[in-house]
Amino acid sequence: MTERKNVLLDKSLQLSLDIIEYTELLETEHKYVIARQLMKSGTSIGANIHEAQHSESPLDFVHKLKIAAKEAEETSYWIKLCLMSKNYPDCIELQNQVLEIQKLLTKIIFSTKQTIERKNNQ
Fold it and tell me: Are 90 and 18 in contact (CB under 8 A)?
């Protein structure tokens, strides 16, 4: 039996790796505060998505993905600051990755909520 590919897991893992690389670059430029904030929120997205894979119920699954979505929103904020600040390395690709993950999270949360509602109305 082959394992199903989980695009959201893969994208969140790659984002975490890219966030680590970018924040290490920020630290070499002594931009520690932003690096720390971005590292925390950016890697938390994937951690919450991975945790959701072993949730206790569909509602718990949605809850964990909502936390990941909040972390993605915070990460988007830090990336936006980097993009708008002078003397910060380019991170437009990180912004694109976060946006893609946000779209996936929104779709999955919405469809899971619909499935829960259908089951409750039967």
Answer: no
**How many other C-beta atoms can be found within 10 angstroms of the C-beta atom of residue 110?**
11
Q: Cα–Cα distances in Å, from 1 out to 4, 7, 8, 10, 53?
A: 9, 19, 21, 20, 19
Concatenating the DSSP letter of every residue in 27-63 gives HHTT-HHHHHHHHHHHHHHHHHHHHHTT-SSHHHHHH
Determine the Cα–Cα distance for residues 43 and 37; give it in Å rounded to an integer.
Answer: 10
Whether this prediction's pTM lies above 0.85 is answered by yes
Residue that has been written with the tokens 């600051």 in this structure: 81
Torsion on CA atoms 46, 71, 114, 8, rounded to nearest 10: -20
Question: How far apart, in whole angstroms, are the C-alpha atoms of residue 97 and residue 12?
Answer: 9
DSSP assigned state of 87: T
Ranges of residues in the chain with a pLDDT under 70 are 1-3
Q: How many angstroms separate the CA atoms of 35 and 28, rounded?
A: 10
Predicted local confidence at residue 2, as pLDDT: 60
